[in-house]
Amino acid sequence: MSKKIGEIKEELANIQEHELSEFINNYMSDERSGVIKLVERASKKLQAYEAELERLEMIKKFEKQYNDCEFICGIDEVGRGPLAGPVVAGAVILPKDCNILYINDSKKLSEKKRELLYDQIIKEAVAWSTGLVSPARIDEINILQATYEAMRQALCKLSPQPDILLNDAVTIPQVKIPQVPIIKGDAKSISIGAASIVAKVTRDRLMVEYDKIMPEYDFASNKGYGSAKHIQALKDIGPSPIHRATFIKNFVLPKDK
How many other CB atoms are found less than 10 A from the CB of residue 162? Predict the structure, then answer.
């Protein structure tokens, strides 16, 4: 007796991507219109899955190029542009056989996808860490130097220490480990992409916590970037302790001397 369409639909909803081919083979000869539509849906999912497998191989290009290095570390930062909050760097050493799908530039992923990937990355990574530099320190040394400082912090926390660094675009001063700067590396290297996700989720969670203390700036939504509501709050009530003084000059009147 053939399965009911509702049962087949539920089966499709619950199967893993690598099981799609078997699902299609099992039901492709079923002539019921509802099943035909489900098979078509499964075929589209399979196409997308196969395309992702191809992309995964492409973003392992640099990792394969430096495969003679035992520990390859991707490093990236988030938070160079916001008006408030720290700059955060992520550093991740993935296992050589890592096959985590959908790792990409964190900005190209939904919040839900980033959260899921963050959990998977920190579970499977050989090592991972973050570095954080405060708004006050950003004002003191400028955002570029603060970014480098956050990256060095993250690197110092790693155990084992990397043999080579794959960086998103930059070469970090005062670091003796060999470095490979890669333009738009968070979309071209699985290691840098993983680092960008770890940094982004870490910083976003922190800004949500700040929002609980200072809800007037809407940090949970804007993450410290200059949204209309955020800028209006700056004009109405002035800066908070986590605002970057050097970033908000256009929105806040100078204090009387």
Answer: 25
HSE at residue 162, side-chain half, CA atoms within 13 A, is 33
Whether the Cβ atoms of residue 123 and residue 131 lie closer than 8 Å to each other: no
> What CA dihedral angle connects 14, 17, 22 and 28, to 10 degrees?
80
Dihedral in degrees, nearest 10, Cα atoms 151, 153, 154, 160 = 120
Q: What is the pLDDT of residues 11-28, one digit of tens each?
A: 999 999 989 999 999 999
Run of H or E residues at 75: strand 72-78
**Residue 47: Cβ-neighbour burial (10 angstroms; 0-12, 13-18, 19+):** exposed
* φ/ψ (deg, to 5) at 50: -65, -35
pTM of the model: 0.90
pLDDT, one tens digit per residue, over 92-118 is: 999 999 999 999 999 999 999 999 999
**C-alpha–C-alpha distance, residues 146 and 1, integer Å:** 67
The label of the residue with tokens 């003679």 reads 68
* Residues pairing with 181 in the sheet: 167
pLDDT of residue 251: 86
Continuous H helices in the chain: 5-14, 20-27, 33-58, 61-65, 111-124, 135-141, 143-157, 190-213, 219-222, 228-237
